[in-house]
Amino acid sequence: MNLDLTNKKTLVCGSTQGIGKAAAKELCLLGAKVVLLARNEQKLKTVAAELSTLSKSVPDYIVADFSAPENVRQQVHEYINKNGGFNILINNAGGPPAGNITDATAESFIQAFKEHLICNHYLAQECIAGMKEMGYGRIINVISTSVKQPIKGLGVSNTIRAAVGNWSKTMSIELAPFGITVNNVLPGATLTSRLEQIIADKVQKTGKTEKEVVESLTTEIPAKRFANPEETAAAIAFLASPAAGYINGTNVVVDGGRTACL
């Protein structure tokens, strides 16, 4: 398989921790020129320094906050004007807070919609022209298995993730003639700070121990364990590669077999 990403310029969002950081590392190892994007500049500098040991140069970074979509768009627009466009875009951001949908406020839906769908849309719009010009484009959205099967206690997330999934499918159809693919990676329970927070919330609400909560969560997973971020990053990197050029408009589930439907 051709997995070589040498000289392919890649923008990785949410890349200072978890799946985003693991994806940035994997893409570096395949030869991509990685640009990190997150809101914490100090963490960006730290990750860039770590990744510099895997590539010929220190990865660049963009400071932007997904809670302010216009800021994200402006920062990426300015970067592209100065440094050129991207071949690969990894849309990735932490999920909305947990909670039942009946308790959710209208504002929580609006904010989540901005942080996920609107930011993804702005980033894609900024990157598409360059992808068309270079004849190679990959847009990969890190969403959730809730696109296929809603997850209990994640009402707002279930709703917004599904919206992003349909946005992605629609865009994949429009961009396919230009050599640009658009796909989603759907992680299951993955060892990230997001999962740690979900476990902590369950401990507080149920009165169970952390061990009991972890056991109850892994019981639902045929693989009987949580994923490591690197396992999801491998799927992202494959979809970004030339080998995945005819895979378009689909969901790649990385969940150890938990999702009940195909």
Brief sketch in words of this structure:
The chain has 262 residues and is α/β, with parallel strands linked by helices.
Give a written overview of the molecule.
The protein has 262 residues and is an alpha/beta fold. It has one domain (9-188, 228-254): 3-Layer(aba) Sandwich (Rossmann fold), CATH 3.40.50. The protein contains eight helices and seven strands, in the order βαβαβαβαβαβαααβ. It has helices at residues 18-29, 41-51, 69-83, 106-134, 155-175, 193-206, 210-219, 229-240, and strands spanning 9-13, 33-38, 60-63, 88-91, 137-142, 180-187, 251-254. Strands 3-2-1-4-5-6-7 form a seven-stranded parallel sheet, sandwiched between helices. The longest helix has 29 residues, at 106-134.
Provide keyphrases for this structure.
Rossmann fold, 262 residues, single chain, 8 helices, 7-stranded parallel β-sheet, alpha/beta
